[in-house]
Amino acid sequence: MPTRPCWVEIKTQALEDNFRFLKRLAEPHAEVLAILKANAYGHSLAICAPAVVRAGARWLGVNSVEEGVAARTVCPASAEPDPRFDLHVDSHVGGHLGPNILVIGGVFAGQGEEVIRHGLTPVIWEPWQLDELEAAARAAGIPAGSLPVHLEIDTGMSRQGASPTEVAPILARITPGSPFRLEGIMTHLFAADEADGRVNAEQLARLDETLNRIEFAGQFAEWLNVGNSAALLSGESRTIAELAARHGMKAMLRPGLALYGLVPRFDPDFEAAEPAGLAAAREALKPVLEWKSQVVSVRCVEAGAVVGYNGTFVATESMRLALVAVGYADGLVRALGNSFSLLARGARAPLVGRVSMDQAVIDVTEIAGVEAGDEVVILGAQGEERITAFDHADATDTIPWEVFTRIGARVERRAV
After folding, report:
1. Model confidence over 297-322: pLDDT tens digits?
2. d(CA 327, CA 25)
3. Of 58, 120, 168, 383, which has the fewest Cβ atoms less than 10 A away?
4. Computed from CA positions of residues 378, 380, 386, 390, in that sequence, does the dihedral angle turn out positive or negative?
5. CA atoms within 13 A on the CB side of 28
């Protein structure tokens, strides 16, 4: 049956074009891993994963094993190679070809079997993760050295990864007789949007030192997986590629926000001397997501009428108000009431009163002809007006990543 009129439109062509642009920007220095974690930043993994593979993505990044299984379901391994891609053969998925799916958040207890079954590549940094994966690999009887893993190094964020001094016990588990193959080393640049580059340089120096430790232990990896959208757009791919080459590795960067058409904000000093790659990105990248609803009904109220819970808005004159099928359960933040606008008939319509769980009210007094069934844009463009994820983020003191990912699961995602 038809659903409640609150939905998200995903422009798959824009997503494919964004990926191709980012890939060209990275080449010839680095490979690009498409970040699809958190349900593709709220855009829908089921829609976005096949789109980036169509665009040429050979690596997909997800957070969890569950997401990895979902990605493999919509991007299955195939018996015959696709001539567009140079994809590796995964012996642990029956020798079939398919996109590499990197599980960035690692594995949890009981998930090793699914990693093996679906040909996922886990990130590891704790010995117990190797315990889980080794038990599953032995039970499945896969050959030695056939389960690729990426070792994450904590180079200063104090979040995820082994510290440089803690890699030895991990490496000791990756032996010729073990199921594991050390395919990649990764870290996260947590201040790539800062102008002076000091933190980046410190992190890369720690990473360089750790790579020396790994080589001294007789271990070698194919990929050096470093850097997000900010690192790629600001031109760090060359620096990362040079570091990788010194250790006989290939570089990989993993853009997320830029893939979905937004250029991360850099600190003011950085933007004052904007690099060519960043300027080109502002022109080339296109937003992928638009969030829409409809007017449910329109009413006229007189001066003194109370609108919404607790009377936070009281009409000071006669007004026309439109009820919209979107609320905080859909991801429209309650605090936006009385302080934000949506788009109706190509004009900005202020939210009046508090945003309810399932509904919101907009003032359409100055917008002629608004009626039930009219489209309302919550995030996106209508006519000459546009509301961006940065607009939502600024109004709620957060970041675009959160704006996208808080759009509720009950909001239908549609490929357009």
Report:
1. 999 999 999 999 999 999 999 999 99
2. 39
3. 383
4. positive
5. 1
**Token code pair at residue 175:** 């032996």
| CATH number where 372 lies | 2.40.37.10
Same-domain check for residues 244 and 296: no
Sign of CA dihedral 324, 330, 331, 335: positive
Please state, in angstroms and as integers, the Cα–Cα distance from residue 221 to each residue in 149, 228, 245, following that order: 10, 20, 12
Catalytic residue among 11, 23, 37, 292: 37
Q: Are 318 and 301 in contact (CB under 8 A)?
A: yes
**Mean pLDDT value across residues 365-380:** 98
Kindly report the pTM of this predicted structure.
0.93
Predicted confidence (pLDDT) per residue in 151-198, tens digit: 999 999 999 999 999 999 999 999 999 999 999 999 999 988 887 788
Tens of pLDDT, residues 24-58: 999 999 999 999 999 999 999 999 999 999 999 99
Check residue 88 and give its pLDDT. Answer: 42
Number of domains in the chain: 2
Judgement on whether residues 218 and 298 belong to the same structural domain of the protein? no
Show the 3-state SS of the chain: CCCCCEEEEECHHHHHHHHHHHHHHHCCCEEEEEECHHHHHCCCHHHHHHHHHHCCCCEEEECCHHHHHHHHHHCCCECCCCCCCCCCEEHHHCCEECCEEEECCCCCCCCHHHHHHCCCEEEECCHHHHHHHHHHHHHHCCCCCCEEEEEEECCCCCCCCECHHHHHHHHCCCCCCCCEEEEEEEECCCCCCCCCCHHHHHHHHHHHHHHHHHHHCCCCCCEEEECCHHHHHCCHHHHHHHHHHHCCCEEEECCCHHHHCCCCCCCHHHHHCCCHHHHHHHHHCCCCEEEEEEEEEEEEECCCCEECHHHCEECCCCEEEEEECCCCCCCCCHHHCCCCEEEECCEEEEECCCCCCCCEEEECCCCCCCCCCCEEEEEEEECCEEECHHHHHHHCCCCHHHHHHCCCCCCEEEEC
Active site residue 260: no
Q: Which domain holds residue 404?
A: 289-415
Q: How far, rounded to the nearest angstrom, does the alpha carbon of residue 137 sit from its chain's CA centroid?
A: 29
Q: Annotated catalytic residue: which of 41, 260, 292, 309?
A: 309
In a domain, 342, yes or no: yes
Per the annotation, the verdict on 37 as an active-site residue is yes
